[in-house]
């Protein structure tokens, strides 16, 4: 399994970090998680073609997670094989309206897209071996986290969320946890509105310490707020001593 980080930044792109988006390459399935910006160009930079994407998971309807969807659907306008789009009912309804605004609901395009609405706790088999389960997270009414399980490997991707220790305890053990870690605790204290909807590095390290998580990958760095990723790493390491990967844009992580 390969996790490709198309972007690792927060809601405001910077020169070094675009909005957060992931591509999971499981050989039989190529799964895109969130659709900001020029996804097709970023896929090509990592050696993929847009047409290889089999499934798209949209965590929620905020602009930095979905504004590139019309572009990727337009690129795939002549595709004939199915493309599955998963999200909460609120997210899927929003995506439908967004595509309609760009006249991308024409029958030729629409007929190959399968819109799948998931509610928290619902599971869906993406392939005979790959199971997707949705979980509610503390960010927006449309927000879902996604657990992907195959052959004993379990990858949990939270999307944007305030920390929820009860949820983490529910989904472990995990092979990989990709978790919102938007800023250090020092920044969080000065931004109470953001703190209520995102996770800071000190509390993430405290929450994951002692849990059966093989690899922790923090993401969604709001680096436009003036901190360094080293600040985040230091706070996580104060409590968590397992395998920690601090991803950059276009970084590829191989999972054995």
Give a quick precis of the structure.
With 256 residues, the protein is of the alpha/beta class. The protein is 27% helix and 27% strand. It has one domain (2-254): Ribonuclease Z/Hydroxyacylglutathione hydrolase-like (Metallo-beta-lactamase, Chain A).
Structure description:
It is a single chain. This protein is of the alpha/beta class and 256 residues long. Helices cover 27% and strands 27% of the residues. The protein contains 10 helices and 14 strands. Strand 2 (21-25) and strand 3 form a beta hairpin. Helix 9 packs parallel to helix 10. The mean pLDDT is 95.
Task: Write out key terms for the chains shown.
256 residues, alpha/beta, Metallo-beta-lactamase, Chain A, seven-stranded mixed beta sheet, 27% helix, 27% strand, globular
- The tally of structural domains comes to 1
- Global morphology: globular
- For this entry, what is the oligomeric state of its chains? single chain
Number of helices: 10
> What is the percent of helical residues?
25-40%
Please write the CATH class name: Alpha Beta
Mean residue pLDDT:
95
The secondary-structure class comes to alpha/beta
Distance between the termini: 7 Å
Radius of gyration: 17 Å
CATH superfamily: Ribonuclease Z/Hydroxyacylglutathione hydrolase-like
For the biggest sheet, the summary is: 7 strands, mixed
């Amino acid at each position: 399994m390969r996790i490709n980080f198309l972007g690792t930044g927060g809601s405001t792109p910077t020169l070094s970090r675009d909005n957060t988006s992931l591509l999971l390459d499981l050989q039989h399935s190529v799964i895109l998680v969130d659709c900001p910006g020029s996804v097709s160009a970023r896929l090509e930079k990592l050696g993929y073609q847009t047409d290889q994407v089999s499934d798209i998971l949209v965590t929620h309807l905020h602009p930095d997670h979905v504004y590139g969807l019309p572009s990727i659907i337009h690129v795939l306008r002549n595709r004939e094989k199915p493309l599955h789009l998963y999200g909460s009912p609120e997210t899927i309804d929003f995506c439908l309206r967004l595509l309609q605004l760009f006249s991308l609901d024409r029958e030729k395009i629409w007929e190959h897209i399968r819109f799948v609405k998931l509610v928290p706790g619902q599971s869906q088999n993406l392939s005979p071996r790959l199971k997707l389960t949705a979980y509610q997270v503390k960010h927006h009414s449309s927000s879902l986290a996604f657990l992907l399980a195959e052959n004993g490997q379990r990858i949990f991707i939270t999307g944007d969320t305030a920390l929820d220790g009860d949820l983490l305890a529910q989904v472990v053990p995990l092979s990989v946890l990709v978790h919102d870690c938007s800023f250090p605790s020092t920044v969080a204290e000065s931004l109470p509105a953001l703190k209520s909807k995102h996770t800071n590095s000190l509390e993430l390290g405290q929450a994951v310490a002692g849990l059966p998580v093989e690899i922790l990958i923090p993401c969604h760095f709001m680096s436009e707020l003036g901190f360094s990723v080293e600040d985040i790493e230091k706070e996580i390491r104060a409590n968590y001593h397992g395998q920690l990967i601090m991803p950059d844009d276009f970084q590829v992580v191989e999972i054995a």
